[in-house]
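Why does residue order matter? Because the sequence determines the fold. Keep that principle in mind as you read this record.
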Amino acid sequence: MTNKEMFEKSFQRPKNYFSLCAREQWNIDASLGILDWDGVGLTADERHRYNAHYGFGPKKKDSKLDKVDNTLEK
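Structure:
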C-alpha cells in the first residue's frame, strides 16, 4: 500500500483515535493495514485535512463567550 493509500485509510480511524490507549490505536491501525504509515511527507492541504479530521488546530471562538470574557476583564 502506498503512503497516499495509507493516508486515505487513516480517515477510517475514529475521530477520538488520539485519546485511545496505544494498544487500541495499534489494533485499529493493524485492522486498517496502516501499521507502517508514519504520516510524514504530507502536503499542506493533506495536513490541514488530517488535522481537521481529528480536531487539531485553532479552535473557533464563540462570540458569546468572548463577550463574557471581555466583561470579566473590566
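DSSP finds four helices and no strands in the chain.
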